[in-house]
Each structure stands twice: as C-alpha cells, then as structure tokens.
C-alpha cells in the first residue's frame, strides 16, 4: 500500500484542523483509484499473502499453489484444498473493500468515523463500526516502543456513551445499507456548512446549568451505606446487604459506580473492600473524574521529570478529537482501542505493512470483540519532542 510520509506536526495538523475533511477525501480518492472494485482488493490481498508465505500448502508445505474461485487454495503438488482466508482477519468477509479501506486509513496514521466509512464503501454503519474496532484491536495488541504515561480507566467516565446514539437501535445492517444507498447521490456537506449548522444549534440551545458538581457528584445513600459497611473490612454482596431491606439491584448499581470512582475495589471470592493507600506513580487528575474539557488541569507526574500535559498533550488532543467529535463517545469496554489509535497518529510508528500485520494476527471475529475489555491502565504516548 502507498503510504505518504508525513512529519508528526503534519499529521496533527491534518487531523485537528479544518483540512481534516480534505485529507479524508484525498485518502478515499487514492484508495478508489488503487482499488476500484472487489476483485482488485482480493488480487492485492492474495499477492500480499503469498509474499508473507500464507499461501503455502498446509499438508506438504509446497508454495506451488493457486487461488481458485470461491477463495479456494489448491496445492499443485498434493492437490489439497482449503479456504484461503480461513483463520485470517478476512475470514468470511463479503465486502472486502470496507476492510481494506479501514486498514488503508490506519496505515496512513488517520481515523474516520464509522458513519463516514459506511457511506464511503456502501456498508451498514454497525458493520463499519465492527470493522474499525477489529482493525484497532490488532493495532492495540502491538505494544508501541515509546515512553508513555498511564492513566486509570475509571477516570474517563465523562467519555463513556451508549452505542445506541451512534447506530440505529433495533435496525438490521441490511436496512442500514438500504438507507445508505438512498443517500449516495447526496453530496457531503461542506466544512463551512457543517460549522454553520453547529453554530446555529449552539445558539438555539439554552446554556447548560451543569457545573463542576456534575463532575464531582455526591454519593447516594446506597453508596454511603456500602462505604460504611466496608469500613469494617472486606465483604460479599450478601454481607453488605446484611439484615437490611435494601434492594439488591440498587446496591449492585451503587457498587459499580463506586468501583468506577475508585472508592472500592473487587477481591477474589466476590468480596469488595475499600482501596488501600498506595504510592502510585500514575498521573492523577485534580478531579474525581477525567474531564475531557479540562485536560490542561492535570497534575504533574509525581516524582518524575515529566509534566502530564506537556508530554502527552498531542495524544490527548487526538484522543479527544476521536472520541468526542468523530465517535461521539465510547464505551469503557473499548476505550483502549481509541487510545491506541491516538498514539499511532501521534507517533506514526512504522512497523512494516499494517496489512501484513493484520494477516498475521489471525481471525478477529464478533466473539473476540465481545470478550475484549480495556485494561485498567491506559497508556498515552509521550510526544517525541518531549523526549
């Protein structure tokens, strides 16, 4: 794949400034000219698989194989047949252009929303979202060789948002595709038109009454009850309930909120306890939650010569752009995938062809994504200019 070499400054400017739409359109035009249809995509993928040695016969290890219709690989030596894409990221894929475009975009250290990707290649937005997550999962598994500062996951509460605001609820992908096809003749809104709509929407809305109290929320009566009970030592849910007549569902919800806030931690055996005091070297925020609009108020990295903002401000800026503007909020479950994407855009790390890495990563299916959970610590890459 053709990848344009750009400096870190150029990548950040393209992604955060008004020329984002121009760069996005440029990448799409280059992709369409290189891969105009599905057969051209498969031809390129098969050639890359042969270069990587993925088209060898699994029985006799011969490289004298050929790809026949239906993605069948036939060995000319022992005549063994198998599916070419079995066990790869392209296993069972029907519209490969969508997958290759997502890989193309990451290869160029860029990111697009699932809505735009779906409209660009004619797939449902929910399908495009799964494609993006699958490719980002492969990217996240590769540990970047750079210094980083870790932040605790629970501090990102204000970024969390339900997926239903992004894709239509209770709507099948085939119906989404039909809606996309109806809109194919409609031109994309220009940048100034989009900006004007945002301004109009903002002027029409009254000022929010939300203040810092929304960030530093008060504990509920159920949460106060749990904290008092745990002051006596670790307890299970049944022990916390005791002889009280409190609703177990409300207690479970309160336990989840307290765990997100870092006010209690789970133990083995289904027990919970108050967090023990520890000398953590993680970057801490001034507030109880990590406010995306007040990233600049982050405390300095304790005990180190690193300043939280100055060192990771680029990765934080890209992360906020992805999650708040493009993805319209993310879930805690997949938070680290978008952090990895932000790190890739900042670092522009070239570890060989991303397509080759995807082919070597194995199958990434629905169950893999379903079982994935972001780690407790999120590592933001330190900009090279700070090292």
State the strand order across the main sheet: 1-2-3
Total strand segments: 8
- Rg is 24 Å
Order of helices and strands: HHHEEEHHHEHHHEHHEEHHHHE
Q: Could you give the distance between the termini?
A: 31 Å
Unreliable spans are 163-167, 180-191, 205-216, 277-290, 292-309
Number of helical regions: 15
Largest sheet: 3 strands, antiparallel
Give the DSSP E fraction (strand runs of 2 or more residues). Answer: 5-15%
State mean pLDDT (0 to 100 scale): 76
The shape is globular
Structural class, please?
A: mainly alpha
Helix content: 40-55%
Would you kindly provide a written description of the structure presented here, covering whatever features stand out?
By secondary structure, the chain is mainly alpha-helical. The chain contains 15 helices and 8 strands. α4 packs across α6. The longest helix has 19 residues. 29% of the residues are buried.
Characterize this entry briefly.
This protein is mainly alpha-helical and 387 residues long. 45% of the residues lie in helices and 7% in strands.
């Amino acid at each position: 794949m053709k990848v344009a070499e750009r400096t870190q400054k150029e990548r950040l400017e393209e992604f955060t400034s008004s020329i984002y739409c121009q760069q996005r359109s440029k990448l799409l035009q280059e992709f369409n000219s290189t891969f105009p249809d599905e057969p051209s995509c498969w031809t390129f993928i098969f050639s890359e698989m042969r270069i990587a040695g993925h088209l060898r016969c699994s029985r006799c290890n011969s490289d004298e194989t050929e790809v026949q219709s239906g993605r069948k690989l036939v060995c000319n030596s022992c005549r063994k047949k198998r599916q070419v894409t079995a066990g790869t990221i392209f296993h069972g894929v029907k519209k490969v252009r969508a997958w290759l475009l997502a890989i193309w975009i990451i290869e160029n250290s860029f990111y697009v929303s699932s809505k735009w990707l779906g409209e660009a290649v004619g797939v449902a937005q929910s399908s495009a979202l799964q494609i993006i997550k699958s490719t980002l999962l492969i990217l996240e598994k590769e540990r970047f060789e750079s210094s980083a500062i870790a932040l605790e996951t629970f501090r990102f509460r204000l970024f969390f948002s339900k997926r239903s605001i992004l894709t239509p609820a209770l709507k099948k992908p085939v119906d989404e595709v039909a809606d996309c096809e109806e809109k194919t003749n409609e031109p994309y809104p220009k940048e100034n038109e989009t900006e004007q709509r945002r301004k109009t929407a903002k002027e029409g809305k009254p000022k929010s009454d939300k203040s810092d109290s929304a960030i530093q929320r008060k504990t509920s009566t159920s949460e106060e009850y749990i904290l008092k009970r745990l002051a006596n030592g670790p307890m299970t849910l049944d022990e916390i309930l005791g002889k009280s007549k409190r609703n177990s569902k409300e207690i479970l919800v309160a336990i989840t909120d307290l765990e997100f806030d870092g006010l209690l931690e789970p133990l083995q055996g289904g027990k919970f306890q108050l967090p023990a005091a520890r000398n953590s070297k993680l970057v801490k925020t001034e507030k109880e939650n990590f406010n995306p609009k007040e990233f600049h108020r982050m405390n300095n990295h304790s005990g180190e010569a690193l300043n939280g903002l100055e060192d990771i401000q680029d990765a934080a800026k890209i992360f906020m752009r992805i999650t708040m503007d493009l993805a319209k909020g993310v879930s805690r479950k997949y938070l680290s995938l978008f952090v990895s994407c932000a790190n890739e855009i900042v670092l522009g790390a070239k570890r060989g062809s991303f397509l080759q890495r995807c082919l070597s990563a194995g199958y990434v299916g629905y169950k893999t994504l379903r079982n994935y959970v972001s780690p407790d610590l999120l590592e933001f890459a330190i900009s090279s200019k700070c090292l």
